[in-house]
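Researcher: Sequence recovery benchmark, item below. Answer with residues only.
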């Protein structure tokens, strides 16, 4: 026998299964266990799979109840290059929530709490929901009575504010205390209008226009129809009623996160120490105290309204890294994604950003530093041979400084690294302080892959590339090009420099007369590895022949 669980948030599963059985004359396949839980035979289970809406987050039985509390899963589509949480927070302070739709991400809130369910038909107000909730995503499950059904749902968000209160008091008596000379005066009357910083009152002396700037307003009792918190109001049907354990789930805008890394290199640039943080931002209009926090890694598709505030549909790139430690997130496979859970609760407060350790600090992993010259970076092999003799001639540059490391377990690492910004520091031996030496962005990097960071350009190493010869024979469909590349090192120590060359004129090429061995990296890319002595130089010369 297999237990039939409550997979549909808005339908009583018992009634649904009984109706299904009646339709197919299969009531003989239904039974109940000692606790009254509906049971279903395997023969019927295969049929109901296409009928019931499965939602793993809503599976429950009356006898297997979760603990009270809130859990939060945050998704992000933030671009690490341009996303700055502080900019959104500052906008929030200045203009309220008008900018929340620009926040690159969303949250899924799951709350379990005890609520008093009315018996029969009745209404239930559910407060403390996010101001930017998507009401169409709300799920309701009565964990004590599977037959409780939601008939209607209303999201009430007409919250108390100064302007709304003034609107509610139109054609009602109000009292304003305003500055007058060195003192203050009291004006009372019927409020006719209140906009553009002025109030219009019908007083015993006639109509008066009173500036609202700096005025104190006295109103009567709070009128009906205004709330202090966003509220969901459900119309329910329940046979039992009473205090029940209820689980709700919904999506909200205004939440996102990003990953940040800090690496400290040793003096020789051979090993490093890394710390990683999740920067979490909450502008959803609600706080989540003692929340279980989760992140999901993968490409989760989320359809956005066309032409709306979100723009065109896009995938939500949500990624996170983890290690099994209380100082960071734990990871497990979840469907085709990865689920990362903080093994402790945390307070996620509204209108705030916070940093949480992504994984514990790691020291002593091996790194590799190299200087790379790429004179023709960005040039791609064209659809036809490039015959212009003046294309891509002499150039001069400083090499890029690259630091790389293997994201492997045997290198003290070996966890998925989410896309984010990596900042690199080195210690100044003179005073022991850390100095910033560069930063870069990384894409989502699975375990066992290589991470490369570009820190900048070397100051004391210079490369110069000169074309020394060019020939073309259109009849024979052949051309040759000869280059001389000189790398000069003015540092006090020898430097290893990799010179990359893009053979961009055509796909069919052959290297001839080179004075230095090369490595073929791709179909149109080769590299020369040079050991350049201190205050010395190295010269690479080669000839390439193209044919078509």
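Model:
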């Amino acid at each position: 026998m297999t237990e039939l669980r409550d997979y549909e948030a808005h339908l009583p599963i018992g009634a649904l299964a009984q109706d299904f059985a009646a339709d197919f004359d299969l009531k003989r396949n239904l039974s109940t266990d000692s606790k009254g839980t509906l049971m279903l035979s395997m023969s019927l289970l295969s049929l109901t799979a296409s009928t019931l809406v499965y939602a793993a987050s809503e599976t429950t039985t009356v006898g297997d109840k979760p603990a009270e509390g809130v859990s939060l899963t945050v998704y992000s589509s933030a671009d690490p290059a341009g996303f700055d949480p502080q900019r959104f927070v500052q906008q929030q302070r200045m203009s309220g929530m008008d900018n929340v739709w620009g926040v690159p991400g969303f949250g899924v809130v799951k709350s379990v709490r005890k609520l008093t369910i009315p018996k029969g038909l009745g209404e239930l107000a559910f407060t403390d929901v996010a101001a930017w909730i998507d009401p169409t995503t709300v799920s309701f499950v009565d964990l004590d009575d599977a037959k409780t059904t939601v008939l209607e749902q209303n999201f009430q968000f007409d919250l108390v504010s100064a302007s709304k209160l003034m609107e509610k008091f139109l054609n009602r008596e109000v009292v304003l205390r305003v500055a007058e000379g060195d003192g203050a005066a009291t004006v009372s009357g019927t409020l006719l209008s209140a906009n553009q910083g002025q109030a219009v009152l019908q007083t015993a002396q006639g109509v008066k226009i009173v500036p609202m700037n700096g005025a104190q307003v006295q109103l009567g009792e709070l009128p009906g129809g205004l709330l202090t918190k966003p509220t969901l109001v459900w119309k329910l049907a329940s046979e039992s009623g009473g205090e029940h354990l209820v689980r709700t789930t919904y999506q909200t805008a205004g939440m996102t996160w990003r990953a940040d890394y800090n690496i400290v290199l040793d003096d020789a640039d051979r090993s490093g120490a890394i710390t990683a943080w999740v920067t979490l931002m909450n502008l959803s209009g609600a706080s989540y105290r003692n929340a279980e926090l989760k992140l999901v890694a993968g490409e989760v598709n989320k359809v956005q309204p066309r032409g709306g505030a979100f723009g065109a549909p896009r995938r939500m790139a949500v990624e996170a890294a983890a290690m099994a430690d209380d100082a960071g997130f734990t990871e497990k496979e979840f469907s085709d994604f990865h689920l990362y859970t903080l093994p402790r609760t945390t307070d996620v407060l509204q209108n705030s950003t916070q940093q949480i350790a992504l994984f514990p600090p790691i020291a002593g992993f091996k790194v590799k530093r190299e200087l790379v010259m790429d004179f023709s970076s960005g040039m791609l092999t064209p659809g036809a041979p490039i015959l212009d003799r003046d294309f891509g001639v002499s150039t001069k540059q400083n090499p890029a400084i690259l630091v790389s490391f293997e994201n492997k377990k045997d290198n003290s690492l070996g966890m998925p690294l989410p896309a984010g910004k990596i900042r690199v520091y080195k210690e100044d031996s003179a005073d022991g302080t850390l100095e910033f030496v560069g930063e870069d962005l990384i894409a989502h990097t699975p375990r066992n892959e290589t991470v490369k960071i570009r820190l900048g350009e070397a100051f004391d190493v210079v490369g110069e590339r000169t074309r020394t010869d060019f020939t073309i024979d259109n009849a024979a469909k052949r051309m040759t090009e000869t280059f001389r590349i000189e790398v000069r090192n003015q540092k006090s120590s020898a430097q290893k420099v990799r010179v990359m060359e893009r053979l961009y004129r055509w796909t069919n090429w052959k290297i001839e007369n080179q004075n230095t061995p090369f490595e073929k990296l791709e179909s149109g890319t080769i590299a020369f590895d040079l050991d350049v002595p201190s205050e010395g130089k190295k010269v690479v010369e080669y000839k390439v022949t193209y044919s078509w």
